[in-house]
Write a structure and sequence with these properties.
Elements lengths: L2 E7 L3 E8 L2 E9 L3 H15 L7 E7 L15 E3 L2 H13 L3 E7 L3 E7 L2 E8 L3 H11 L5 H9 L8 E2 H4 L12 E3 L10 H23 L7 E5 L8 H12 L2 E3 L7 H12 L1
Parallel strand pairs: 1-4, 4-5, 6-11, 11-12
Antiparallel strand pairs: 1-2, 2-3, 6-7, 7-8, 9-10
Protein name: Pantothenate kinase
InterPro entries: ATPase_NBD (IPR043129), Type_II_PanK (IPR004567)
Pfam families: Fumble
């Protein structure tokens, strides 16, 4: 039985999935010191773990910034380059089962891809994402370990970092409850705890991404936003985005294989080609 392989090659992390008979086959992520090591390690382990022979691989599609480093066959199999923004759209559409949406790819930065049936196009993005969180955490928390940052944030109080509407007004403003953010980090003090800072940083990144996404949808009629990428694994997504949903009457969706959607979309391009 033939399988199409999609590989999202990052600088230090590679994600790989297979698509067989219209189903995703056991996604895998591998970290390494460079993209080539990461790619070969991920591909070899994926084939071994799933008992896939090389002759069973129909096509190998590469995407991601690290794909540019690969210009020859991998394990003797020819590879093709998949268009990354198209992969974002195809993967998110496959996972969410939606036809009309904006795909929010939360990586080092954030890219926005609009999908309207088969019309999939990149509409912009912002330079805020996981890279922002890592860099500011190195400066303020002396760590860029994302798991440590998320654990610290669980014990934080964001009201000690952000200025809320309730801090500047005795009554809710039109369309804005007193718990809404008036200004990110405007309430931070020099003696703020690491836990409060960690939560403030995560809220700043996720709220900025959410606000940019909502603004990008104006006049499009789109109210569904599908979140993909590594930042979707942050536990704080579970309450930050629902708050924005309630405030703006939109819907943020994190699909099952959210961190692998780009690799899924790459594999789907193999089917199309």
């Amino acid at each position: 039985m033939k399988i199409a392989i999609g590989i999202d090659v990052g600088i230090s992390t590679t994600k790989i999935v297979g698509i067989c008979d219209g189903k995703v086959v056991k996604p895998l992520r591998i970290k390494a010191t460079d993209p080539i090591t990461s790619l070969y390690g991920a591909f070899g382990k994926y084939l071994y773990d799933n008992r896939i022979e090389l002759v069973d691989v129909k096509k190998v599609m590469l995407t991601g910034v690290g794909a540019a480093y690969v210009d020859k066959p991998v394990y003797g199999l020819p590879t093709k380059k998949a268009e990354e923004f198209l992969a974002d759209g195809l993967g998110a559409r496959f996972e969410s089962k939606l036809q009309k949406m904006i795909v929010v790819s939360m990586g080092t930065g954030t890219s926005l891809v609009q999908c309207d049936d088969n019309n999939i196009r990149h509409i912009g993005g912002i330079g805020i994402g996981g890279g922002t969180l890592n860099g500011l955490s190195r400066l303020l928390l002396k760590t860029d370990n994302i798991n440590e940052i998320a654990e610290l944030a669980k014990k934080g109080d964001v009201s000690k970092i952000n200025l809320l509407i309730g801090d500047i007004s005795q009554h809710p403003l039109p369309g804005l409850p007193k718990s809404a953010t008036a200004s990110l980090f405007a309430n931070a003090q020099g003696n703020a705890s690491r836990e409060d800072i960690a939560l403030g940083l995560i809220c700043m990144v996720l709220q900025s991404i959410g606000s940019a996404t909502i603004l990008s949808s104006l006049n499009s009629g789109i109210r569904d936003f599908v979140l993909i990428g590594n930042l979707t694994l942050l536990p704080q997504c579970e309450y930050i985005f629902p708050m924005m949903e309630k405030l703006y009457d939109v819907r943020f969706i994190i699909p099952k294989h959210s961190e692998f959607c780009t690799a899924i979309g790459a594999a789907l391009q193999a089917e199309k080609k």
